[in-house]
Write a structure and sequence with these properties.
Layout (H helix, E strand, L loop, with lengths): L1 H21 L46 E5 L20 H11 L12 E6 L12 E5 L5 H18 L6 H7 L4 E6 L7
Parallel strand pairs: 1-4
Antiparallel strand pairs: 2-3, 2-4
């Protein structure tokens, strides 16, 4: 009888060890490991079809990151023209906010430079106004100071012309104080 208990104990220990080795957590972020709701480990939920041989892992396309970055081009690509349409309602989503910010941009006409890029960072308050002036975080290397100043003035005047933005109470509360980074790209063909 003791021999049977010893064999069962060793079998249980070896099964537990093998199970622990097989279920190690993958250290790679967003690594897909199918699981069940009954598993006691972190994993990616999956769904299956009886016609498919293995688990079907859903790929989730997150449209916006946590840091609210936006690129605004002076001449948008044909595929992006819809993103540059001003919303006809109070801003309720981040997509609405980005569309509004895109429509606000008017690049400088004098002292402009083809290919100029400039990035600024700022935050909104709950009422849709700026919390302080936009802070310059990047400018194309080798550009004269007067050209940088011209673009920074154009950015400030474009933003001020649109303010205050009309947020819904939900979006205003969610965005208040969160940093927004915008990269302006002057992709116009100048001097031709």
């Amino acid at each position: 009888m003791w021999r049977g208990i010893l064999v069962l104990t060793l079998l249980a220990i070896s099964t537990f060890t093998a199970d622990a080795q097989r279920r190690q957590i993958n250290p790679i972020p967003f690594a897909h490991e199918p699981c069940s709701v009954l598993d006691g480990r972190p994993c990616t939920p999956s769904y299956c079809s009886p016609l498919e041989p293995g688990p079907c892992i859903p790929e989730i396309d997150y449209p916006y990151g946590q840091n609210l970055q936006l690129t605004i081009e002076s001449v948008p690509a044909e595929a992006d023209r819809a993103k540059y349409q001003k919303p006809d309602h109070d801003l309720d989503t981040i997509g609405d906010l980005f569309a509004e910010l895109r429509t606000c941009w008017s690049p400088p006409s004098d002292n402009a430079r083809a290919g100029m890029q400039m990035a600024v960072r700022f935050s909104f308050n709950k009422a849709g106004g700026l919390i302080g002036p936009p802070r310059l975080t990047f400018a194309t290397a080798g550009v004269p100071a007067d050209t940088r100043t011209t673009y920074l003035k154009a950015i400030n005047s474009s933003l001020n012309a649109c303010l205050p933005l009309k947020f819904t109470s939900g979006l205003g509360g969610a965005l208040a104080g969160r940093p927004i980074a915008i990269r302006y790209v002057d992709n116009r063909e100048l001097g031709r």
